[in-house]
Design goal:
The protein has about 350 residues and is mostly helical. The chain contains 15 helices and no strands.
């Protein structure tokens, strides 16, 4: 029998490429089955430290899991209720907003016709293309809604994963031989530490950005500053690209309903917040746990979006962190851990201490 190392390099590359294509195909086909399960695993990791503490004081596991999951659902429900109130306030003024959008569009059309010579028929064709694009976006969110329909499975999966967590750990130990026992236990230990801290840090960063975004929009003079701040902060759950998406939506809304000057002010605030978030908040709150370099992060976000859409973009980074832990613990995979991480560029990063030092010297 020929071992994999005896195969030509081209054959080994081809085998790995086919394996990767097969995995991606399986992930796409089983999307509705796996998305709620993968979300549930992350929620289980997020609740694991609290579950451990409650069980440590003598609370039965069944009651512990029930209390934590119900509490998490109540918190999420409260956040959604608050967001719903903001949307309701926005909806009351929707006719005025639509009228202002129509007026701004007509002014923009006249400006293009007078300055660039673009005729009304050309603008109509562009409008039809935008309508087709809007239909495509609608189909995208309709497809995403299929995942929302089975979102009720996530609390059930989370409960069962927490309840049977020792069983799963024992199963993994039995799958691998005893000589790999220490490696398996180390991976489980680091994952149970890193993932909850990362998700907690991500939530903290999101809350801070809600305050910063909303305050900035209010100072600028943006209408519905709190709602716009929440939207911009929510998309920040997607690293790097999320801030661009969130602020892009706010920029388009302000450009369509208020004025070009305010939209320009939103763009300036975006660069300020992006710098602060990327160089101060994330590295010191979540980056210290995950430490994935930006190139790999952005590539993984795009890949996650292509495979699983918006849910894939939200959850790809925690699983990338788990992959990095596996590569760090297994000796043969350490070079891949170095490639995924940020080591080797420490002198170019800005920490909170560096920021304070620069601020004092200035």
């Amino acid at each position: 029998m020929i071992s994999s190392n005896e195969l030509p390099l081209s054959a080994r590359i081809l085998v790995r490429l086919l394996l990767g294509i097969t995995i991606v195909f399986i992930l796409i086909v089983t999307r509705q089955l796996l998305v709620p399960l993968f979300f549930a695993v992350l929620f289980a990791y997020a609740l694991y430290p609290a579950a451990n503490r409650l069980e440590g004081i003598g609370m039965p596991r069944f009651i512990t899991n029930f209390v934590l999951i119900v509490s998490a659902l109540l918190l999420i429900g409260a956040l959604l209720f608050g967001f719903g109130l903001l949307i309701a306030s926005f909806s009351e003024d929707l006719p005025e907003i639509q009228e202002q959008m129509s007026e701004n569009f007509n002014q923009f059309k006249q400006l293009l016709e007078s300055s660039l010579g673009i005729t009304e028929s050309q603008l109509s064709n562009a409008g039809e293309n935008l309508q087709d694009f809007g239909q495509y976006i609608g189909e995208f969110f309709t497809a995403t809604a299929n995942t929302v329909l089975i979102i009720g499975l996530i609390p059930v999966y989370t409960f069962l994963i927490l309840f049977y967590r020792n069983k799963f750990r024992e199963f993994i130990s039995r799958v691998f031989s005893s000589r790999y026992e220490n490696i398996v236990q180390e991976i489980a230990k680091q994952t149970a530490t890193v993932v909850p801290r990362y998700m907690k840090g991500l939530f903290v960063v999101c809350l801070i950005l809600v305050f910063i975004n909303s305050a900035g929009f209010y100072i600028i003079g943006i209408e519905y500053a709190l709602l716009m701040g929440v939207i911009a902060a929510f998309f920040n759950l997607i690293p790097y690209l999320g801030t661009v998406i969130g602020y892009g939506l706010v920029f388009i809304f302000v450009l369509a309903t208020q004025s070009t000057g305010l939209a320009f002010a939103v763009a300036i605030q975006f660069f300020i917040v992006q710098f602060f978030e990327n160089n101060i908040l994330t590295p010191n709150i979540t980056g210290s746990y995950v430490q994935i370099n930006p190139l790999v992060t952005i590539f993984s976000l795009i890949a996650g979006g292509m495979i699983w859409g918006l849910p894939g973009m939200f959850m790809v980074i925690p699983y990338l962190a788990i992959l990095k832990i596996v590569c760090e613990v297994i000796p043969k995979l350490k070079p891949y851990s170095f490639l995924l991480g940020t080591r080797g560029t420490e002198q170019h990063l800005m920490t909170w201490a560096d920021f304070k030092k620069r601020f004092k010297s200035g």
